[in-house]
Design a protein that fits this description.
Length: about 110
């Protein structure tokens, strides 16, 4: 029974902070400043997830070296994204460059 209560409590702690602001402000129009700032949320979250994995894959500090396959794949993905703007192609290029550089580096 304690495990069920723990899971229920964790679910509420995860759900309520997300739902309450939506419920409280559902009938109001957001100010333009808030709408503008919310447009920056997805890129900021993506950057917060990707950059540590690319720049410090071992977790022991930043690795800005040519032997970091994560960095090489990330740079290739970024360049392919600037040129192509096609998600599947960019993803395939990034994965291919990552594995190729990992194989070449050893």
């Amino acid at each position: 029974m304690n495990m069920a209560l723990l899971i229920l409590g964790m679910g509420l702690c995860s759900f309520l902070p997300r739902y309450l602001p939506l419920a409280a402000f559902a009938d109001r129009e957001m100010p333009p400043v808030v709408k503008t700032l919310l447009n920056y949320t997805p890129p900021a979250v993506l950057a917060a997830l990707v950059f540590p994995a690319v720049l410090a894959p071992s977790g022991e500090g930043i690795e800005l070296t040519a032997t970091n396959p994560y960095l090489i794949g990330g740079i290739a993905t970024f360049i392919a994204g600037l040129i192509s703007k096609k998600f599947l192609l960019v993803t395939a290029i990034g994965i291919a460059v990552f594995f190729l550089s990992q194989w070449l580096i050893g």
